[in-house]
């Protein structure tokens, strides 16, 4: 066979392969049939070479839908790395992936030919398939390189459970402990939260945040410590993530009761001597709470250890009735004041 016929057959086989990139076997079969019908004298080695060339043309090109023009071939213009999450509990393993962005606007998942690397493998290690392992606390970047393009993603390793959800063991819910409690205004109480698994075991909650429905009633800090502000009730909302980044939420009730009295004081603290028949002396009771607030209260129980000398009414009035000495005390919410001594003298 002359070289002119051989070149023409080669060109036809190549064209058939380029027209059928979505079905390489079909393209090769069509080329083989054309060669067999029109070049019976072509040697076996020459036929194999022609078919191999046609197949290679299909493999090395990124083309559009079958029947498209090969002049419109798409090329890789960049890559992007992604992962289920970028904050990794210590010991967690997650799979990263890379996608190629093509010149025609499409994307393609990359599997082979990607080179993975970690800027600090002692913090986050990565294998050749893009599987990441959180090795130690800290932050580092993981990169993927393909066809001269590189994309990176920064990961942070935080303390946490090494649990990884599986089809048989999953995270069921976030639980807050206690579910409800009471605290006096001015005092604090602590809440905690953990993730309950489907096998009924628990693991610590990571990326845990707290929020209160009413800061005028109760406040809460990042550690779950609640401070009572004023009598009333408020809802606490706890939000956390599992090792794969899924979010969970739970509620708890906190009831704030009136503040505790830390001191009760009678005023005036010193009363000059009275004479029998004088007008009553008005005494008041001032309370100081755990909040630091002080106020005069009326709902006080007054008592005199010598009622014949000094008689007390419910409003804090001390009546000098008879010569003698009396120690006056006040009681409020279970707290008793220091006594105030009143001396009554007889008019000569």
How would you describe this structure to a colleague?
With 348 residues, the protein is mainly beta. The protein folds into three domains: 82 residues, Immunoglobulin-like (Sandwich), CATH 2.60.40.1080; 87 residues, Immunoglobulin-like, CATH 2.60.40.1080; 85 residues, Immunoglobulin-like. The protein is built from three helices and 31 strands. α1 packs parallel to α3 and α2 packs antiparallel against α3. The protein is rod-shaped, with a radius of gyration of 43 Å.
Number of distinct helices: 3
Per CATH, what is the topology of the largest domain?
Immunoglobulin-like
Proportion of helical residues? 10-25%
The rounded distance between the terminal residues' Cα atoms is 156 Å
Query: What ranges have pLDDT less than 50 throughout 5 or more consecutive residues?
Result: 16-29, 34-71
Principal-axis shape: rod-shaped
Largest sheet: 5 strands, mixed
The radius of gyration over CA amounts to 43 Å
Strand content: over 45%
- Structural class designation: mainly beta
- Estimate the mean pLDDT confidence: 81
CATH class of the largest domain: Mainly Beta
| Count of structural domains | 3
- What's the total number of strands? 31
The CATH architecture term of the largest domain is: Sandwich
């Amino acid at each position: 066979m002359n070289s002119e016929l051989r070149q023409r057959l080669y060109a036809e086989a190549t064209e058939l392969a380029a027209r059928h990139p979505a079905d390489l076997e079909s393209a090769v079969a069509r080329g083989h049939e054309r060669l067999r019908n029109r070049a019976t004298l072509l040697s076996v080695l020459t036929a194999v070479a022609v078919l191999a060339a046609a197949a290679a043309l299909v493999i090395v090109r990124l083309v559009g839908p079958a029947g498209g023009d090969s002049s419109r071939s798409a090329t890789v213009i960049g890559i992007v790395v992604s992962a289920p999450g970028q904050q990794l509990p210590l010991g967690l393993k997650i799979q990263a992936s890379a996608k190629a962005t093509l010149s025609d606007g499409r994307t393609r998942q990359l599997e082979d030919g990607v080179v993975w690397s970690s800027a600090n493998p002692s913090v986050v290690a990565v294998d050749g398939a893009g599987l990441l392992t959180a090795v130690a606390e800290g932050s580092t970047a993981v990169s993927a390189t393909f066809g001269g393009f590189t994309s990176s993603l920064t990961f942070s390793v935080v303390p946490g459970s090494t649990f990884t959800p599986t089809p048989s063991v999953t995270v069921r819910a976030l639980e807050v402990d206690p579910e409800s409690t009471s605290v006096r205004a001015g005092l604090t109480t602590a809440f905690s939260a953990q993730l309950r698994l489907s096998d009924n075991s628990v693991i610590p909650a990571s990326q845990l945040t707290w929020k209160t429905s009413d800061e005028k009633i109760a406040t809460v800090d990042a550690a779950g410590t609640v401070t009572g502000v004023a009598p009333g009730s408020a809802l606490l909302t706890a939000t956390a993530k599992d090792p794969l980044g899924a979010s969970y939420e739970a509620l708890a009730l906190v009831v704030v009761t009136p503040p505790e009295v830390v001191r009760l004081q009678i005023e005036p603290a010193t009363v000059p001597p009275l004479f029998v028949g004088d007008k009553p002396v008005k005494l008041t009771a001032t309370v100081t709470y755990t909040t630091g607030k002080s106020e005069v209260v009326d709902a006080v129980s007054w008592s005199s250890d010598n009622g014949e000398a000094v008689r007390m009414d419910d409003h804090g009035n001390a009546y000098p009735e008879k010569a003698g000495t009396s120690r006056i005390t006040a009681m409020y919410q279970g707290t008793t004041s220091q006594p105030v001594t009143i001396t009554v003298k007889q008019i000569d």
